[in-house]
Structure formats: C-alpha cells, structure tokens
Design goal:
There is one protein chain. Helix 1 links the parallel strand 1 and strand 2. The protein is of the alpha/beta class and 271 residues long. Strands 1-2-3-4-5-6-7-10 form an 8-stranded parallel beta sheet. A two-stranded antiparallel ribbon has the order 8-9. The longest helix has 15 residues. Helix 1 crosses helix 8 and helix 3 runs parallel beside helix 4. Helices cover 38% and strands 15% of the residues.
Length: 271
C-alpha cells in the first residue's frame, strides 16, 4: 500500500477552490479516479491521501476523495494550533468520517508559518488528536526537530509518523542525526517518501541515509509512500515501489513486505 499521495481538484473545478492562504496552487487535477485507476494497474491495494496545503483546513475535497475511494482510501487532516475552531472542526471531521481520518499533519518548514513551539496551543491540538485516536504526522526541516521532542515524549502512546525521511537534504547531517535518534522513542515511525534521486543537491547520496534509517528504526517501524501524482501511469507507479524495494535489498523479503505495506495496513486500520 501507499501512505503518501496528494489529490487536487485543479483550478478549473469551482466546487473545490484552493484556500487563499495555500502555499501553492496546482493547475492540473490529480483526482481520486485517476489514483484508483493507477492503483489497480500497479497492484496497490490501499492508499492514504495526505491532505495538501493548498486547501489548508478546508477538507471538502478530501471528503470527496474518500467517498470515491469506497474503502480503498483513507486520509490525513490539517489543522493549526491556536486557531479558534481547529479542535472543534477536527473533532467534527473525525466523527463524521469514522475510521477514515488517520492522522493529523503538522508542518514546520516555513519560518513565517511555524507551529507555536513550547506553547499550550500546540500541546492542546496534539492532545486533542491523540484523544481522537489519530496519529501525529510531522513534516518539518530537521532544524525544527527539538520543538517537537517534548510532545513526542509526553504523549508516548500516540504514534508519530516522520514524513519524507525527516528531510535529510534540508538540514545538516548533525541536524538530521537528531531526527534519526528519535528512533529511541518507541512511538515513532519513519516514512520512506519523497526519496530524491541518488545524487541531488546538496549532493549527498541518499542510499546511506536510507540504510541508516533502516538500522535505526528497524523493519517494524518503517512505512513507504509516494510515486503517484499528476501524469503518473500504472507502470511508473509500480516502478517507484520497485526502486524502494531495491534500496531495501539488504532486508529479507518478509521485512521488505512489512515496509512496503504490511506495517502501514496495520497502523492505519486497513488490515
């Protein structure tokens, strides 16, 4: 299964407008119908739609996608600490979509849009998500890792998913090492997603990073996501899986299967 896709209605669909505060606005659509077709061709059974930033805390298109998915799709939600109605609206969404919303995603990469680290508002949102049975999904640059550590430790029963390898190429090796050491927290799960080409600016080879993460987190706390988007085909989607499988060639086939689907199926309630 795939734990990381974004769906967009595109700019031509007036039913699902982008939010005025969205960081970007994809013109072309990447629809759930396209996704399901690619899934069928590639042999992908289930997928988690990661609610993308252009919609901010408007989840209407996500709900549309879940309706189209008919049990094959689940979703993440995006709400912001300190906003008056975030906890209320998150609670309503989760109760309206029982079993379909699996994580709360929190971003920390744009300096002007950071969560309120160290303040009660972030803890309150984290706790509310935990009380609803959601995992916390963190998308951040490594330099912001220290701000999350107290909450990872305090809410030790709440699963924390680390997006995109912990963004190793957006930080120094020392900064990313702190993220790798989160493996000591048993509630953390590393997501192998947004894996760059073997040599990408700033010209650090990703393969040793993958091996470091495999060693630190082990096959039981790794999940995979990615490879689908606007213009994808069943063939290209499958090729993304096979590339990651090749990066996991040091693991036995049973452990590769855990990383490429079995772990996520259990974590997100597909199994």
């Amino acid at each position: 299964m795939d734990t990381h896709v974004h769906c967009f209605a595109g700019t031509a669909d007036a039913r699902f407008p982008y939010h005025k505060d969205g960081a970007y606005r994809p013109e072309k659509a990447s629809t759930p119908e396209d996704l399901l077709n690619c899934m069928k061709q590639a042999g992908v059974d289930f997928t988690v739609i990661v609610h993308p930033e252009p919609y901010q805390d408007d989840h209407r298109y996500l709900e549309h996608c879940l309706d189209v998915g008919k049990g094959k799709l689940k979703g993440t939600c995006l709400f912001f600490a300190g906003r008056p109605n975030s906890i209320r609206d998150m609670t309503a969404l989760v109760k309206r979509r029982p079993g379909q919303i699996v994580t709360l995603r929190i971003h920390a990469y744009a300096p002007e849009r950071l969560p309120p680290f160290g303040k009660p508002e972030l803890r309150e949102l984290w706790k509310a998500a935990s009380d609803l049975g959601l995992a916390i999904q963190l998308h951040f640059e490594p330099r912001y890792a220290p701000g999350f550590e107290p909450l990872i430790q305090e809410f030790s029963k709440t699963r924390v998913i680390i997006d995109h390898l912990g963004r190793p190429l957006q930080g120094t090796p020392e900064e990313h090492d702190r993220v790798v050491k989160w493996s000591r927290f048993e509630n953390t799960v590393m997501k192998l997603s947004s894996i760059p080409a073997t040599r990408t600016y700033p010209h650090r080879d990703v393969e040793p990073i993958i091996q470091t993460l495999v060693k630190a987190f082990g096959p039981d706390r790794l999940i995979y996501g990615g490879g689908w988007g606007e213009g994808s085909t069943g063939e290209s989607y499958r090729a993304s899986y096979e590339r990651v499988r090749s990066l996991l060639s040091g693991l036995p086939a049973s452990d590769q299967a855990k990383v490429l689907g079995d772990n996520a199926a259990k974590l997100f309630g597909f199994a």
